[in-house]
Amino acid sequence: MHNEEHKNLRLMLVDDEPLARQGLRIRLAQVRGITVVCEAENGRQALARIAEHKPDVVLMDIQMPGIDGLGVVDALCADPRLLNSIPYIIFVTAYDEYAVKAFAAEALDYLLKPVEEERLREAIDRARKMLRQRHRSEQQQQLRQLLARLTGQREAELSDPRQQAEQLAKLVRPKKLVFKDGHTILRIAQEDIRWIEAAGDYMCVQTDEETHVVRTTMKKIEADADPSILQRVHRSTMINVQRIKSLEPHSNGEYFLTLETGKQVKLSRHYRDKLEQLQQ
Known about the structure:
By secondary structure, the protein is an alpha/beta fold. The protein folds into two domains: 4-172, 3-Layer(aba) Sandwich (Rossmann fold), CATH 3.40.50; 176-278, CATH 2.40.50.1020. The protein has nine helices and 15 strands. The strands form four sheets. A five-stranded parallel β-sheet has the order 2-1-3-4-5, with helices on both faces. α2 (43-53) crosses α3 (69-78) and α3 packs across α6. The longest helix has 17 residues, at 117-133. It is elongated and about 65 Å long.
């Protein structure tokens, strides 16, 4: 890139939450020398729009349904046609300390949610300096090293973006789920959740201590949840698989799950593919 110091940085925002993108736009409006050229709400859109718009910097959420942020990175690194289009990546994450240490070890920038304005400015300034001083291929190497560090694989083995995205999602899912309860932000450890049930436009999240009524969707919770802990067993129900006491078949092909508390939950036929995992 030529004359980096004197031209606007072209930014792209990637997050499946519209409110998260809006919050970033509001904060970025206070930063001089940047232009938000496009947005994406999932990994597939991100790959297409990076190729089309060739942004200088991408602020990208890691945890998204389908191809997540790390899956996007893997796809960029694996596609020779995109080699010269790889932007400077700033990860946006609510992940635990393990993943954050991995980013730091490879000198890759990250922002923790909720994003603070001062920290955002620092990340943009750092991106500007890095783009002046270094070639894009160097960050590609750093991104591959990050993926290798998180998965324990050799860099040469990182070739299938879809498979890699699934593996990375399992490794670095956040330990807590984030919900809004009125004006309060709740962070609930997944291990503490007994079950989750839909109630109209709301979800009832039952923990060991109390029931929280939150406004979200089952689809969103399922995308964020660690499947080794929380599994959807019915259109309107998720359970903590570690809390299952017994599993009994019903004559119509459905199953009834009994949890530690004595609560019975139906495993509908639509979710029969979960049966093998639930029996482990």
